[in-house]
Each structure stands twice: as C-alpha cells, then as structure tokens.
User: What shape does this take?
Amino acid sequence: MPYLETVTDLGPETLSRFDAIIDVRSPAEYADDHMPGAINLPVLSNAERAIVGTIYRQESPFRASRVGGAIVARNIAGHLETALADMPRGWRPLVYCWRGGMRSNAMATILSSVGWPVGLVKGGYRTWRRDVVAGLDGDTSPLPIILIDGPTGSGKTAILQALEDQGGQVIDLEGLANHRGSAFGGFDDLPQPAQRLFETHIWDQLRQFDLSCPIFVEAESARVGVRRVPRRLWHEMLAAKRVEIRAPASVRSEFLVTAYGDAVNDPGSVARALALLKPFHAKETLAGWQALADAGEHRKLAEALMLAHYDPLYARSRKRRDDTPVQIIDLPALSADDIEAAAKAILTQA
Assistant: This one.
C-alpha cells in the first residue's frame, strides 16, 4: 500500500527519521542552496528546466506541463534504474523541490508507488529557506559566542578544531566558507559556496547547539572572502567576549608556511594574492615580497607580510573594538600539543 507523508517540520529530529533527503530541483538550484545532507536527483536538468519555462511563458502552462511531465517521467525512471536501484524495501526518503509542486509530487508519488514510505516537504525548499532566514536574520535572542582572537598565524583555526575535538561547540566560518579570510585565503580547487548555502551550513549547526553552553567562533570581519556573515551571528560576534591567542612572530610565520602550504607552493597563487595588496603597499615593497616568493623564502615572506600588513591590520581592529580579552593564551610554540593545551585551557575557563 503506497504511503506518502506530508512533512511541515524540518527540525533535526524530523529529518533524522529519513534515510535520505532528495532534492529533485535542477543542478543549478541545488548548487545555490539545498537542505543539509540532501542529494541531488533532478527531474529536470538545467537545460530542460529552461525549455519548459520558455514554453510556459511563450506558449501555454498546459503545454509546459505536458512537455515537462514527459521529461520528468523519463528522468525519474533513470534514477530508479541507477541511483535508487539498490535501495531496500524499508528505505525511507524525504523529497522536495522548489515549492512542493509538480517536480517533487511526481517523484514522491512514483517512489511511494514502488513501495517505499516517502516524505514530501510541504512548500518545498522555500519552507527550509524561511527557517534559515528566521533563524539567522529574524531571531534576536542572544547567542553565547566566545571569539577566538589573535594575530595572523597564531593558530586560531587549529585551536577551533581542537576545541571541537574536545567537545566544544564550534562554528568554523572559514571552513564553511572555504576561505582563510586573507589575500591568501582562497582555495583554487575549492570555490566558495553560494551565499545561501553558506547560511544553510551555519544555521544547520547553530540550531543543533545547546545555547546554555558557549559557542566558539574565530574573530572574523563581516565577510569571509566574498561570503557575508549572517546578521544575527555578526551582531553577536561584535558584542562577544574574546580569548586572545599570542605567539612570537617567528613561530607564527613558520606555522603559516605549513597552514598555507597549498598557496605558498603555487607561484601563481602567491602572485595573485600579492596583487590584491597593491592598494596598500608600494610597488617596491610588493616586488620585494614577490622576490622572496620566487626564491622559495616562504618563511621570510610570511614574516614580512605579517609585520608590514597583517599585524598592523589586527592592531587597528583591536583599537576599534576597545575591550579587554577575558583570557589570554601565550603560546611559545604552535605544536599539536600546544594547540591541544590551549583548547583545554579555554574550555576550562569558559
């Protein structure tokens, strides 16, 4: 007997009841944003969706539905013969499209007819997006944010990871944005997510946290690369307590060479990053830094950049904030043991 459940609550407990979340929208829609953990089994490709949309606008909604229906049926058949071919009898999928219309209803109906218990998201992706916007822009309740602060190269991201490994609640904005928050911060082989997908990643973490316990976030600017930190989180970060990490410049420069290994070992990446600093430094200074890169003097380059560019930026940002850190962690070295000890000290005092 076919079983089709209409789902309106997209909380973590509800989603955990399903074995898979299927986004049947086009690959372009999926790339822009999708529900956490969703797989993309499109019933219309990007090109097919454009064709059906053109027919809808230029000819008639009826013909668009007829043409689209035939394409959707063929694509669903293809998914049944490939991606879904080995799913067991009790497999339980949750299906959604843009607004809970023809695309998701067609997929859900056919899957339930096969014999699988199927969930169908009422309102589709737009229901999820409303939850994200409400949580990140509309909700004004306080968040127990503690900032992990410190100059460039002080191991903040590594400390965040250690905090998470030791049971702390962490939002790694740089990790979620695929960007390290500096001119050298991008990953050539890993583009930044779309803004809405970035927000989905943040909200999915935040909604599962215990708000009676601290949430650790690295001190960032309002943008991480080209991605904007959502309004609610950014306002809370501006007012949050901060832990300051301190380490000698020589230690930080050596740490940076390792942390940014993918960038410093790519001459093109270094040149592109240095080009971004043209508005801030003289041609002679930039030429000197490029010469260090060309000579493979990566540690010297890192230290020069820190002392002449990043440390002054950090000092100016601290003056604008004008507050006292609740905890100062002095690290004479940035070994794995030092990072773990720093995280333990932060958790103990938080």
Summary: The first helix runs from residue 12 to 15.
